[in-house]
Amino acid sequence: MTIQLLDRDLSILSFNQRVLALAQREDYPLLERLRFLCIVATNLDEFFEVRMPQQLQAVQDNVSQGLVSIQSFEQIASKAHTLVAKQYELFNDVLMPALAKEGVHLVSGGVRSQEQKQWVAQYFKREVKPLLMPVALDPSHPFPQVANKSLNFIVELEYAHNQERNIAIVRVPRVVPRLVKLPANISQKEQCFVSLTSIIRANLEDLFTGARILHFSQFRVTRNSDLALDEDDVANLRIALREELAHRQYGDAVRLEVSHECHEELANFLLEQFKLPQPALYRVNGPVNLGRLIQLPDLAEGAHLKFNAFLPQWPKGLLRNQSILAQLKDKDILIHQPFESFDAVIAMLEEAVDDPDVLAIRQTIYRTGADSRILRLLQTAVRKGKEVLVVVELKARFDEEANINWAEALESIGAQVVYGVVGLKTHAKMLLIMRREGKAIKRYAHLSTGNYNPKTAKLYTDVCMLTSDATITREMEYVFRHLTSELPLPRMQQLLVAPFTLQTSMLSQIKKAQLASGRGHPAKIVAKMNSLTDETLVLALIAAAKKGVEIDLIVRGACILPVELPELGGRVRVRSIVGRLLEHSRVFYFNIAGDVNIWLSSADWMSRNMMRRVEVAWPIHDVMMQKRIIDDLLTPYMQDNVDAWVLGPKGEYQAVQKTPNATAHHAVSCQALLLKKHS
Predict the structure, then answer these.
(1) How far apart are the first and last CA of the chain?
(2) 582-583/572-577 β-pairing
(3) CATH of the structural domain 498-677, one choice from 3.30.1120.10, 3.30.565.10, 3.30.870.10, 3.10.180.10
(4) Which one of 48, 71, 127, 605 counts the least CB within 10 Å of its CB?
């Protein structure tokens, strides 16, 4: 019997519904609720850029059957439209009125005082108008190239001298701040902000002197952002990728957003220009790009409107102001971010750079963010004569340009920079330090579920390990050698490496659990990850559950496993934790007849992670470390009744409900517990 798995794209949209629910939570501070609303908007941008092109292609090719078809497009578009409508309803009817009561205003043109109108007009003439260049459409001025996610106005004009009508396009400049705070002397002692689009909208007539504006609307087009790059056919990946990035802004259109009052003829004109069907049109009742309002929670003041700041603690297992490398000779160190500080990892790298006995540093780079401390440390290491090898993943989606700049900055001073294996993304998070100690070379290492990004290390939950374990560090060296030379990996004793052994090892563990359960022994699997979309692993989990294996899955985002199959007998439970912090750690736990095995990993259970990326999973053998992982990364997540959602029939999620007689003392938020534990 063929098992009907859940639709991945609908599951991704369900995840964004759960993020939107955070913006609806009345126990969250108002500006943080607005921030989550904006996060949904940026998440949807990426969804349309990455997932919708294949759906639209199915519509254009008139595909009526299969996983990707006209029907799937209509389902996804319907769910996306509903989600967007709820976003703007929450924005207009709840969040902005509540913020106004707290003295934080996004002041639209219709409610500005005379003083505010004058200030906005002067700001427009001084800062904005010189950068605006309307393009009137005629035979010598065809419809202009509109970049991905750029904000524009379409304006229908009637010229006074000949009564002719024409259309003009105005691109909103990206170099001007999207939000501007009004001066205190015209804000009635409150915090008043104006958006750039409302500034332009209020002064459009100033742009078109001699013409009458009949209709106008903001609009924004989202485009396919996958890069078409044949790695087998390029001589230099970095150069080829930089050239390809220039074209990303102008991929095929997949979504058109316009103001809700946009005239029908203008909307249809734009759909025709971008070759989009009617369901790809999104009329929005408010700012066309809600994502840009994420600046407001940072610009506005008011401690009670934001989460209480927490300070990540120095890892409990490490002594401050003592050599980290020396401490690793006696024990491994587990760091649970952001509750414990990523600064310890920076300190380890700093120590290695300053230590004259350290001969070489090897590191993978996937996403680093704007913080340049790690880059500067690696550059300093090169200048001090150390061998520095950095594997930079140039194809990390939407971080390509930043990573190219990293690669060039390191190469320019003599670091050895490679881009991994052709056809595979390097997603493993590894740092390896080689130190001369007597007549031998000792290795020290950092392995992580998360990126070398100091900013996200304060916002994402991840877990990493510092170690000098001889076998693990030697096998990390093998992985680095494979990345630089594509030499085959030897048989590994500790590390599981995708695309070679990770999936098969997980399948082997699931099969062991299935066989043990079939023989009457207890078997339990708990796996925590961001997404579960690998069909091979999903079908293996279903087969194991049929034989009696108890399976708990903590999956933040997309999950294609249908838990309601009657033959599973309720033995597969899927929950999603969506809270203040972004859940990002990956933990794989197997208890087979009392024999416990735990791995931490950079990989989700997705086909791309298993087969198209270089990933690493490493085992946790130490009993106390195993206990800590169970106590901090698994058990509280299974007990959470505040931030948790459970997957139900047909792929819909329901918020976990506290028992009817529960009190506030019985409310369990795993993230709140961990923040308190480490405060």
Answers:
(1) 52
(2) unpaired
(3) 3.30.870.10
(4) 71
Q: What is the pTM of this model?
A: 0.93
Return the number of other C-beta atoms located less than 10 Å from residue 343's C-beta.
16
Bridge partner list, 81: none
pLDDT at 458 over 80: yes
Tens of pLDDT, residue by residue over 81-94, are 999 999 999 999 99
3-state secondary structure of 425: strand
Domain-by-domain residue ranges, the chain? 8-305, 324-494, 498-677
Confidence at residue 602, expressed as pLDDT on a 0 to 100 scale: 97
Residue 90, amino acid: L
Q: Per 3-state DSSP, what percentage of the chain is helix, strand, and coil (rounded to 5)?
A: 40, 25, 35
Q: Name the pairing type of β-strands 587-592 and 595-601.
A: antiparallel
Q: CA-to-CA distance for 633 and 465, rounded, in angstroms?
A: 14
One-letter-per-residue 3-state SS of 464-480: EEEECCHHHHHHHHHHH
Task: Assess contact for 91 and 290: CB atoms under 8 A.
Answer: yes
Assign domain 8-305 to its CATH architecture.
2-Layer Sandwich (3.30)
Catalytic residue numbers, as ranges: 427
Question: Cα torsion for 656, 660, 665, 670, to the nearest 10°?
Answer: -10
